[in-house]
Fold this sequence. Notes:
Blueprint: E1 23-24, E2 27-28, E3 36-41, E4 70-71, E5 80-86, H1 89-96, E6 104-111, H2 119-127, E7 141-147, E8 151-158, H3 165-173, E9 177-186, E10 189-190, E11 199-201, H4 204-225, H5 233-239, H6 247-252, H7 257-265
Parallel strand pairs: 5-9
Antiparallel strand pairs: 1-2, 3-5, 3-11, 4-5, 6-8, 6-9, 7-8, 9-10
Helix pairs in contact: 4-7
Amino acid sequence: MIRAAAVLPLPPHAFTAVHTLLFVRARPLAAPLPRLWRYYKPAGLLTTHKDPEGRPTVFDSLPPSLPRVVSVGRLDMQTEGLLLLTDSGQFARMLELPDAKIERLYEVQLVTGSRGIDQQMLHEIEAGIVFADGTRLRKIDVRVVSQGERRATLTMRLREGKKREVRRIWEEHFGFRVRKLQRRAYGPFQIGLLDPGELKEVPPEEVRKMQAIARINLYRTKGDAQGKTNLPKHARRRKLGQEPATAQADQAEQGDGADEAWEHAGAGEREPPERRHAAAPAAN
């Protein structure tokens, strides 16, 4: 049985501004599980809901039956590949944060001319490049797949999505031309056999696990920053106000980490209004 109740020392007119929470057996109901789609973004589309210049956008190309969605990060107009779409702005933001430690895998095809890629360039990228304007990048794992006389193909693994990061590395910093840039994966989600423009929903169980993993990483990072790295996970969550201190929570730590993190850390979370893409920079 579901009951809603509130006892607040407020005058009657103040209750119009109070949100009512639903409880089942004295525990708040969990927020609905977000939905997530894998989308192969073709080159030539902008990742925005509306372009003032009238250029084609990702959202113009989506099926009309799809609910309103936002993208997890953005890809610039000429970059193609995997773009995750979700109906939850909060979930999108969670997956974008560098502290969630979710890798993005890119394949880069370069026109190198007679110079070629040398080991010093790879070391510089792996150490963290600083651009002329002072922008500092985190460490990037880079591997040369193939290299000929005038062309090279590489893979790059990033954990953040600064604006045009990959293109800036190769074009602005090293002076090469990016012939093709494709995102191959975002965390565990891969482009697979999707064709350009194709859309496929991610199964709920995979969404739940991804949500739990991101939460665990964010809690761990925040706990480290507060000097609480020696606390067990459930204690760190209680310190951060995400979970009540209960014996049930202690017992849950002995189960599967990802699933238990969802069951306990996710309960009662409410979603803020969806963010707008106009404020988010395009990645790569």
